[in-house]
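Action item from last week, closing it out:
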Amino acid sequence: MLGVAPELASRLLLSLIVVVAYVVVRRGAIRLVVRRLGDPTSRYHLGKVVNYGFGVLALAFLGRIWIQGVSGLATYLGLLSAGIAFALQDPLMNLAGWLFLVVRRPFEVGDRIQIGPHSGDVVDIRLFQFVILEIGNWVQGDQSTGRIIYLPNGWVFKHPQANYNKGFRYIWNEIAVVVTFESDWRRAKEVLTQTVNEHAEHLTTDAAAHIAEAAHRYHIKFTKLTPVVWTSVVESGVRLTMRYLCKPRERRASEHEIWEAVLDAFAALPSVDFAYPTMRRFDNAFEGKSAARSRDSQVGFEGVHLGEAGAPGAAASDDRGEGESGPMPTTGKPGAAPRAPRRPWRDRPG
């Protein structure tokens, strides 16, 4: 019939029957899974098993139809091996990556990961690629951008992966608050310590339990899990850094709550001001320490230079104190530490 050998026609007909049976049975099995299981995660995993299981069976039947005997199989594989190795490098690498993901499980569906320059929540793992729902990028606080990113499975061999959920299921987050040098930074530190403890200390017990569980597989060790406030000095003032534990998907929410509490608390403290960039002139003779003031009063105006037209104040020597930049609010709070009054340069003692 139509010039086709009976044996070839028979194989084509059997192959068509196998393909149609595969499509019909697979769809029926997936519908059954969707109806019987209400949990989306269980539905997803069982659906993958059904897809791959019926796919393997269909390939086995097709191979049985078209390949006759062991010698035919060996000849076929020998002819194609060289071409496959060259032309299918990336697909084979992705297939090996899929096997690695299935066996070793560096991450699973539902985990939040970072691989290469991309971060997101894993929403699907396929034979040649895995899919993440992107976080970060132009969005702050590790929140979702709404974009889906498809990444080849071979990336697991080429790029390091960071998993937010494996082992220790919490992350450390830090919030830095900078107050002016004139502020009562010790009082500010007390307020910040109380605030961060109220919002994060309750996670310490659960985090310690997860560390004890993960210690069987990883060498994870933390000497301190409770929130802490570290003190350091920067150009703009005294930096107080709150360090605390939070869940990976609650980083921005925790920052939001802590910052609102800090703003309310600092508003009620007359001796504490936030530092922000301003410009002011600092005269060491009147605003410096007592020893410096007495020394500068003896120097007088010897260090003052005049401009082209005799304009005073064109430049000042180091002894008189140069203009400096720093975190000084233009208007302080009532009750804040008073600053030394500044006199016009003409009225200062010479």
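Closing note: The chain has ten helices and twelve strands.
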